[in-house]
Amino acid sequence: MRGTPARPLAARRWLVESIAWAAVLLLFAGTMTAVANSGTLLPGQGGEPSTGGGDPGPQPGGTVVETTVVTKEVLPAGQAKVAGSASVLTVDGAVLDGVATPLTADVPERGLGRAGAVIENAIVDGQRATISWDSGRPLVIEGAGAIAVGPVGVSADPQGSTVSFGEGTHGIAPAAYRIATPVAVGTSGLAEPREGGVSFTADAATTITFSGGAFTRVPPGVLRLRGEGKVAATGDFGVTERSEQRTAPSLDFGPGAYDVTVTPGTAGLTVAGTLEGPLRLP
């Protein structure tokens, strides 16, 4: 019959198409395998190609988190740190490294019977002697030495500092000195007046005791004030207590321990230090 050859022809066509599709599928599968092995990205895939193993690190478009650690000092209870500027600062009970000579000492009211100073164990003309000043005139002590004072009162301002010697006994640094003021000198028995003053040598045993509110004025310079007592100041201060910070126009501290450094400047006094005790702020 004439229609019979159509079946074998259709079967052959189906077989050829099937083989062709199989070849296409095999080619596609091979391509995908090669891409995967090479790390190449196909369209629509994000990120970086994998290089195999390890942490690939931050990917483009990801979020990087940075952490900042802030440490905050917390002071002990009852302690405060102060820093700022002052027009005037006063303390009592301060122990100074020394008040350098030459210096001039005076009293609020001269000539009073209880006002003046007594130098004990001075060496005058090779002998131990006592030198007495009656405060009739300012006491002028010359020489490259110092009075190792403490505890004393100090009032500081931009023009200098006033050191109040109080009623205590202070050491005199070993050196040669001259008093250019009328005094009385005694080695044994009654003291003899020395209108022209006297020269003496001080050693470790030599001391001076003031009375009647004697004081001296010290030129401007850096002062480190340490001791037990009171501190008062007027100016502009930053105050830290525990972890809290605030500002204050004045300080009223004590009694308690303090360690304060005062530096004079054109705009006033720069103050920085630590207070341990009751602090009252306005």
Task: Give a quick rundown of the structure.
By secondary structure, this protein is mainly beta.
Task: Describe how the helices and strands are arranged.
Layout: H1 6-38, E1 79-95, E2 99-100, E3 103-106, E4 116-124, E5 127-133, E6 139-142, E7 146-148, E8 152-157, E9 160-164, E10 169-172, E11 175-179, E12 183-186, E13 192-194, E14 198-202, E15 207-211, E16 215-218, E17 223-241, E18 244-265, E19 268-276, E20 279-280
Antiparallel strand pairs: 1-8, 1-17, 1-19, 2-7, 3-6, 3-16, 4-5, 4-15, 5-12, 6-11, 7-10, 8-9, 9-16, 10-15, 11-14, 12-13, 17-18, 18-19, 18-20
Number of domains: 1
Spans of at least 5 consecutive residues with low confidence: 38-50
Provide the succession of SSEs. Answer: HEEEEEEEEEEEEEEEEEEEE
Radius of gyration: 45 Å
Largest sheet: 12 strands, antiparallel
**Shape, principal axes of CA atoms:** elongated
Report the strand count.
Answer: 20
Question: Which range best describes the helical content: under 10%, 10-25%, 25-40%, 40-55%, 55-70% or over 70%?
Answer: 10-25%
SS content category: mainly beta
Indicate the mean pLDDT: 83
Q: What separation lies between the terminal Cα atoms?
A: 125 Å
Q: Approximately what portion of the residues adopt beta-strand conformation?
A: over 45%
Number of helical stretches of at least 4 residues = 1
